[in-house]
Amino acid sequence: MQTSETETNNPHAHEPEGTAANTPSAGLTITDMSWQDPDRMPPSDLPEDDSDRMSPWHFKNTVLLMAGYLAANNNEMKNYYMGANMFFYYSIQQIETLDFKGPDFFIVFNVDGTKPRQYWATWDEDVLYPKIIIELLSPSTAEHHMRERKLLYEETFHVYEHFYVGPDVEELLGWQAGMGFRYHPIEPDGRGWLWSNGMRLWLGPWEGFFLGEYHTWLRLYHPDGQLVLLPEEAERQRADAAEQALAAERQRTAELLETIEQMKAQMQ
Q1: Which among 234, 241, 240 has a CA at the least distance from the CA of 74?
Q2: pTM of the full predicted structure?
Q3: Burial profile 116-127: b = 16 or more Cβ within 10 angstroms, e = fewer
């Protein structure tokens, strides 16, 4: 695993050698798709997601991941797009067979992240595929995701990194593409965290309340190990620091006044 001390701040420095970020060669190309016939152009009214099938932990953790990655990027989404619980379309056969797929969380680099999207369709996005995917597993989906989704992400999407997270982060696994898109496991550090070279962040568990529920959540951490704070957490931290500083100043003032009173008593 690469360590944070040697990392650069370029979010695209992670590209495997010999490939460009999000090029058509990273997945199916336009000529591979079956709608070259203008009478068979893909529809534009496709289903968007299957949020009704997600547990509260899964849904809220995707919200937490999106908020965290946005916070880690100065709350700007100019040159990347991240989606959560959002169907991903890459072939007309997939549509015809109703084989809808949606990564729980994904990031595509080198795109306008401010453009509104209801789903991701590669034919509308210059055939760009995700570079980062995170799947939040459940007992009913773990085997399918670890077998079929992993194969799809590696052989069709050619994703750079993909991660799989068990409920309450009891399991955290990841794979990264190397030379020739040969994938190797990302080794955890002593804390059990995984380093994402694509995001330039650590992935690890965090216990606490989020959106009214107490769980162990998957959170993002800076290279130095500090938690990526959400805006409300950062504001609360600043408020707590200001309150502590004020309390310390009051204590110093009280001690000074007490010292002055003692000196007055000694002079009488």
Answers
A1: 234
A2: 0.74
A3: eeebbbbbebeb
Comparing C-alpha atoms, which of 56, 84, 85 is closest to residue 70?
Answer: 84
Residues 6+ apart with CB under 8 A from 261: none
**Collapsed DSSP state (helix, strand, coil) of residue 45:** coil
CA distance 265 to 268: 5
DSSP state letters, 75-143? T--SSEEEEES--EE--HHHHHTT-----SEEEEESS-TTS--SSEEGGGTTT---SEEEEE--TTTHH
**Which residues, listed in sequence order, are joined to residue 81 by a DSSP beta bridge?**
108
Q: How far apart are CA 219 and CA 203, in angstroms?
A: 6
What is the end-to-end Cα distance of the chain in Å, rounded?
A: 71
DSSP state of 228: -
Name every residue whose Cβ is closer than 8 Å to that of residue 46 and which is 6 or more positions away in sequence: 87, 89, 95, 119, 121
- Residue type present at position 89: Y
- pLDDT per residue, tens digit, the chain (268 aa), is 444 443 444 444 444 443 344 433 444 444 444 444 445 555 555 544 455 567 889 999 999 999 999 999 999 998 999 999 888 888 877 776 677 678 999 999 999 999 999 889 898 899 999 999 999 998 877 887 788 889 999 998 999 999 999 989 999 999 999 998 899 999 999 999 999 999 999 999 999 999 999 999 999 999 999 999 999 998 988 887 778 878 888 888 888 888 888 887 888 7
